[in-house]
């Protein structure tokens, strides 16, 4: 909950103020103020979705209901949040890649793309394992 509250403050106060300050300091890049604000707020929103879904999954673990269809919905929320963040990052990577003067930032964005893609694929594998375990548990409960 503390992390979620910090992210809300970061999302509503810090990021817009930071990009406004950057626009004042670099007037030639001021046209990027609102797109950068929107993209960064969207990424924080994706992180918030992952935090809430993980919290709900941990609640299901505590109640010994993790192997139920309800848990698959929360895992789907995590997968979709990661996919949405990855797609927006891909757009940022392409924009920066075509407009960059040096390769530093595009390389950093490429590494982030690969890392988030690996995280997303890991979540897809975990979802398949959860689905299989849920099916097995349902079959065992039917037998017992």
Automatic annotation (TrEMBL):
InterPro entries reported in the protein's UniProt record: DUF2975 (IPR021354)
Pfam families reported for this sequence: DUF2975 (PF11188)
Assigned keywords, A-Z: Membrane, Transmembrane, Transmembrane helix
Superkingdom classification of source: Bacteria
Record field: transmembrane: 38-58, 70-95, 107-130
Record protein name field: DUF2975 domain-containing protein
Source organism of this protein record: Micromonospora polyrhachis
